[in-house]
């Protein structure tokens, strides 16, 4: 049998994780695992990867439905809505900065 | 009375050992991943210090808002394209500063940074991640509107048009 391909002298590290599950979560995972014919580990690694990828994507983008997106565009084109608290705080800081000079 | 103003986060971060905003995940994030996010250019964290101690922080990142499934459709009109902007990913104030209206001051300084960034490098929308209902109420009380993202198992997101922000802080 051929040797596994040699990498740059460094082996991929194996990382382990353990987690406590409620009975309900455990049953859910067991059912999905059985349906998909995966090992428990494979299912968990796939799910973790998918969740992590989504989380990274959502840091960069917010995804909206067609309707929500359309509402957002309308809001962007609408007349500005001032916020009084923000205005007062900004005016206060302008005064502070002017006083420093 | 100390007049707090933000300064860029230092690397390595100092003075954050005792930071406690009351939300453990926000405390841990500052002391841990914040520096990696900064080094990778994925977000910028700005601090308030009381002497050498960190007493507040905010984290800003580039962001856009997109429409689901738009890539699989033929049209790509003006109303289909992503809206560019920024994400206020985190805002945290030490417990010792709670109840003095300083959250408004911290948020307003974040808005000033966003106004400046958008005037130099564009952007139409500021999105915020509210870590809990209390945080969402705080943003609503400062003119932010709710946004219902497709993924419903994430923190609540709210937004404000940057044109409105500029009108308030300039």
Task: Describe the structure in your own words.
The complex is a heterodimer of chains A (101) and B (170). With 101 residues, chain A is mainly α. Chain A has helices spanning 23-36, 40-60, 66-77, 84-100, and one strand at residues 61-64. Chain B has a single domain (7-67, 81-169), classed as Aminopeptidase, CATH 3.40.630.30. In chain B, 30% of the residues lie in helices and 29% in strands. Chain B is built from 5 helices and 7 strands. Chain B has a 7-stranded mixed sheet with strand order 1-2-3-4-5-7-6, sandwiched between helices. In chain B, strand 2 and strand 3 (53-67) form a beta hairpin. In chain B, helix 3 (102-121) crosses helix 5. The longest helix of chain B is centred in the middle third of the chain and has 20 residues, at 102-121. The radius of gyration of chain B is 17 Å and the shape is globular. In chain B, 39% of the residues are buried. The mean pLDDT of chain B is 94. The A-B interface holds A 54-55, 58-66, 68-70, 72-73, 75-76, 80-83, 85-87, 89-90, 92-93, 96 and B 3, 42, 61-69, 79, 82-83, 87, 89, 104-105, 107-109, 111-112, 124-125, 127, 141-143, 145, 147-151, 154, 157, 159-161, 163-165, 167-170.
Q: For the record, what CATH class of chain B applies? A: Alpha Beta
Q: Helicity level of chain B, as a percent range?
A: 25-40%
- What overall form of chain A do the CA principal axes indicate? elongated
Low-confidence stretches of chain A: 1-9
Provide a count of the helices of chain B.
5
Q: What fraction of residues of chain B sit in β-strands?
A: 25-35%
List the helices and strands of chain A in order.
HHEHH
| Average of per-residue pLDDT values of chain A | 86
What structural category arises from helix and sheet content of chain A?
A: mainly alpha
């Amino acid at each position: 049998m051929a040797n596994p391909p040699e990498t740059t002298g460094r082996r991929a590290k194996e990382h382990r994780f353990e987690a406590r599950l409620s009975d309900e979560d455990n049953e859910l995972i067991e059912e999905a695992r059985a349906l998909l014919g995966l090992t428990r580990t494979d299912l968990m690694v796939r799910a973790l990867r998918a969740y992590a990828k989504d989380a990274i994507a959502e840091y960069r983008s917010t995804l909206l439905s067609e309707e929500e997106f359309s509402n957002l565009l309308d809001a962007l084109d609408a007349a500005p809505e001032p916020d009084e608290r923000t205005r007062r705080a900004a005016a206060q800081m302008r005064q502070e900065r002017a006083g420093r000079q | 009375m100390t007049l707090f103003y933000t300064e860029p986060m230092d690397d390595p971060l100092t003075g954050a050992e005792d930071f406690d905003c009351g939300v453990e995940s926000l405390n841990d994030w500052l002391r841990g991943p914040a520096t990696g996010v900064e080094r990778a250019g994925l977000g910028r964290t700005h601090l308030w210090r009381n002497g050498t101690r960190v007493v507040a922080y905010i984290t800003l990142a580039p962001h856009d808002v997109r429409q689901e499934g738009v890539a699989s459709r033929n049209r790509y009109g003006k109303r289909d394209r992503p809206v560019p902007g920024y994400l206020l990913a985190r805002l945290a104030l030490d417990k010792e500063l709670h109840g003095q209206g300083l959250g408004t001051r911290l948020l307003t300084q974040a808005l000033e940074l966003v106004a400046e960034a958008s005037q130099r490098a564009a952007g139409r929308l500021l999105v915020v991640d509210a870590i809990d209902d209390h945080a969402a109420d705080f943003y609503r009380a400062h003119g932010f509107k709710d946004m219902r993202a497709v993924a419903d198992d994430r923190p609540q997101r709210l937004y404000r048009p940057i044109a409105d922000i500029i009108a308030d802080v300039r």
